[in-house]
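Agenda item 2: flavin-adenine dinucleotide complex prediction
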Amino acid sequence: MQTTSTTLIVIGGGPGGYIAAIRAAQLGIATILIEGDQLGGTCLNIGCIPSKALIHASEEFEKAKHYSHGSSIGIQVSTPSINIVQTISWKDGIVKRLTTGVGALLKKNGAQVVKGWAQILDGKTVAVMQDGKEVQRITCQHLLIASGSTPVELPFMPFGSGSGKVISSTEALSPTEIPKKLVVVGGGYIGLELGIAYRKLGAEVSVVESLDRILPAYDEDLTKVVKTALKQLGVEVHLGLTVQGLNADENAVRLKNAAGEESELACDKVLVAVGRRPRTEGFGLESLMLDMNGRAIKIDDQCRTSMRDVWAIGDVAGEPMLAHRAMAQGEMVAEIIAGKRRHFTPASIPAVCFTDPELVVVGKSPQEAQAAGIDCITAMFPFAANGRSMTLESSEGFVRVVARKDNHLIVGWQAVGKGVSELSAAFGLSLEMGATLEDVAGTIHSHPTLGEAVQEAALRALGHALHI
Ligand code: FAD
Ligand code: NAD
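Presented output:
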């Protein structure tokens, strides 16, 4: 059996791992990335990219259906139909192009990719397994764990149960047909992004959330706009209910409310989206006896674990489980190993939910600023007063800014509305650059764009908005 020696081993080729490997190789560090499945990880194969492809297809189909009922802008189409098998094949084509691209980038930069499952033997030695057999042993100076996360299963309703009715996001992203009735368990990111997409693709969708509100990670001023949109779209939302399992005929989900009353919701498929958990088991990680933070590997602000020269990034290191956070950590760890002085202390990690309308939060909400003892000014500008929104037939939602009262330093942005995900770059930049309300208000924003609502929110916070 072959034994190889390198400077850095990266376990996992998701956005955290592949970015770390590319950057390390760019910096001249001998790097081997071990991936047991597909390069690109959850994000490219079964997460961010395929979900946004399905959301896009569902939006286009919905638009065509909307026009078939007649439209105010004069477009008429006959009743549209969708070939979901072709849609999925289009989505798979995008995934293939991107994963092939990741392989090419790793190669171009000089990082070596080893196909197989990494089994950690100690902090400096990893066995590569194929079909349960060790095919290679690699020793290293630095070990970077980027093994990602897996969907949380409900023990009484595991994935695949109910004769395959109970599915995770992975199966939901590759349907062969659209179910008539879809029950979604969990009103968080995945439940609502995919629940809305399935509704637009023609399913009757019911979302069951155990808390008393949807999207608990976002503040209620934002989520109530989504709640209204869900109602208009015909997505049923059941709050404050716990799922008990499938009924005996496996054609309905049993529910219980806080008073202990039971009810049932008919289903053809059940998408369970109740969170993801760090992937820490089954590859010898336990042998390192690392300090843990709940189920996640505990890291410091340089992504160091409790063992010297063992690093962890991305979902395996806990919340927020977002691809851009994993990538930023991966780049940083590579630079630290190369001798640069870096710390993971971003001004903010933007969060975007690709519901319809979309949500963006960057930095502190008014409530978070208040809780942090910051005396703040808050102002919002509605898209109803933005010309571009009107031309896009979407005037729901708003942009809100939160800034310190004393020096007008911006500490947070929130937005809800069509297409606001693209505003997250401007929001993030303004926080990272330490912009004040005057900086944003004094920047010429192109007309007509949604971005003008950003400038107007800053102007409004200063007391002199121009279009409201
Ligand atoms: P992963 O992407 O999970 O990659 C880990 C890799 O490690 C996998 O390829 C796995 O095969 C490999 N691996 C694990 N163990 C081993 C081993 N022992 N040996 C070899 N290889 C191993 N985030 C966003 O920011 N925006 C979004 O829009 C978004 N949408 C999402 C939609 C869905 C449906 C899902 C499920 C997730 C979404 N996410 C989104 C979250 C995002 O996918 C994750 O935060 C991101 O992929 C984490 O990157 P990672 O590198 O930490 O891990
Ligand atoms: P989530 O944490 O976003 O939402 C889970 C929801 O399920 C919560 O609202 C929770 O209260 C609810 N819940 C938990 N147990 C329940 C139960 N037994 N019955 C009913 N409801 C229950 O998790 P998710 O939607 O599975 O997504 C996982 C992670 O993937 C996200 O936290 C996020 O980090 C990432 N993700 C990000 C994006 C994005 O950035 N746009 C999109 C999809 C996924």
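Discussion summary: The chain has a mean pLDDT of 97.
Owner for follow-up: CH.
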